[in-house]
Amino acid sequence: MADSSVKKVVLAYSGGLDTSIILKWLQTTYRCEVVTFTADLGQGEELGPARDKALLLGIKPENIFIEDLREEFVRDFVFPMFRANALYEGVYLLGTSIARPLIAKRLIEIAEKVGADAVSHGATGKGNDQVRFELTAYALKPDIAVIAPWREWDLRSREQLIAFAEQHQIPIAKNKRGEAPFSVDANLLHASSEGRVLEDPNEEVPDYVFSRTISPEEAPDKPTVITIGFEKGDAVSIDGQKLSPATLLAKLNDLGRDNGIGRLDLVENRFVGMKSRGMYETPGGTILHVAHRAIESITLDRGAAHLKDEIMPKYAELIYNGFWYSPEREMLQALIDKSQEFVAGEVRLKLYKGGVHVIGRSSPYSLYDQDLVTFEEGAVAYDHRDAAGFIKLNALRLRTLGQRKKKLGL
């Protein structure tokens, strides 16, 4: 049942068929004024048609918001996450997950700007995105109303959606009349594909699904060597050229694409309880992840590095589940950011047929001491004889346990 108290709603609007249907459904069901917000996160699509479509559906020009958020996305969301080396379930670089809190944040900011009392999104009732959008919205504006059409309407099939669009004279592209072979979400960090042809986890992903990478088999036979510069844990340059966050990630995407880097076929555990199979392409992010761990390997103390690795799964899970604006994520971020004060220097990488290989790393803050690790004798502050006492102290409890087992005949 529509809430008659809703007078104005801000819709996360892509300009595609589904969100255009949602736009019209909001107008006809809630009888409210609709404001559209379209975010450019580097998805690679022209956003002008979204404005034209919104105008066609009766949205006032002053109620159409189209914003380029690429730099904010990488600087304030992607880079902080990469400082943590975050991987969900050990492999997923969280490309979809990290985009949702930014979109929802801007939805709330626009709602406050235009005096809206509700926001709306096109996430389905089976997925994670509904959780991510709404947890962010409620964290930033506790009294906001959230309208999730896929949980409310009775449009349960593609045929019903098309019939609704035809009834309300919503333009339908020829390739949108049938069921899409798979769904795609894309931004500057990654592209994800899931559904339909990808639902059987035992079937290989068809070649036509890939949009961000060439196959490793088709990648050049000659490796590409690059150098990434870091300051305080963030990548700042490629081959000595300083670049803005979004420009740098876009450049890494090009390098990754051309070398067949960043494909991931994953069956993941969704927050809502089911398993889902998807294909993720994260070319630039895969390179950045390897490079960041490499620069940390010479600049982070063992205790700090191991603590980061211990908290990383929790940090990644918080992002995946939609808790970017939770106090626990912010607490972990403060710890992670503290660890990055001296994570600076350069990492040399060889990109070759789907692989990212570290071939060198250097830093003015390096903790690597060649005099300490060399096999050659030198004037170093390490006495081999000290190791005997170190081992005996660490072996004390093991020897005590061993003696007990011996007494008991175990």
Automatic annotation (TrEMBL):
L-aspartate binds at residues 124, 128-129. It is found in: Cytoplasm. Gene3D superfamilies: Argininosuccinate synthetase, chain A, domain 2, HUPs, Single helix bin. L-citrulline binds at residues 92, 97, 128, 132, 183, 192, 268, 280. It catalyses: L-citrulline + L-aspartate + ATP = 2-(N(omega)-L-arginino)succinate + AMP + diphosphate + H(+). One of its GO terms (biological process) is urea cycle. It holds the Pfam family Arginosuc_synth. Belongs to the argininosuccinate synthase family. Type 1 subfamily. This is Argininosuccinate synthase.
